[in-house]
Amino acid sequence: MPYETYFNMLLNIGLLVLIAALLTNLEFVRDLFLEEQGSLFSKTALAVIFGVISIVSTYTGTRTDGAIINTRVIGVLAAGLLGGPYVGMLAALIAGLHRYLFDIGGFTAVSCAVSTLFEGILGSVFSARFKSGKMKQIGIFALTAVAEVAQMVIILLISRPFVDAVHLVQRIAVPMILMNSCGMLIFLKAFDMIFIREEGQFAEKMRLCIGIVEQSLPHLRKGLQSREDMEAAAQIIYHSISCSAVMITDMEQVLAVETEKYKKELADPAFLVPVLESVMDLKPTYFHQSDFPKKLGKALKDQIIVTAPLLENEHSVGGMTIMIKKRRHAVRVDLEFVEELARLFSTQLELSNLEYQKKLRRQAELKALQSQVNPHFLYNALNTISYICRENAERARELLLTLASYYRQTLENEQYMLNLHTELYHVNTYLELEKARFEEKLQVDMEIEEDLDCMVPSFILQPLVENAVRYGADEAGIRTVLIRAFYMPDGKQDGQRQVCIQVQDHGKGFSQEVLEQFYHGDNWNRVGLKNVHERLKSVYGNDHGLRIENTGRGACVSFLIPENGPS
Question: Are 322 and 237 in contact, with CB atoms under 8 Å apart?
Answer without folding.
Answer: yes
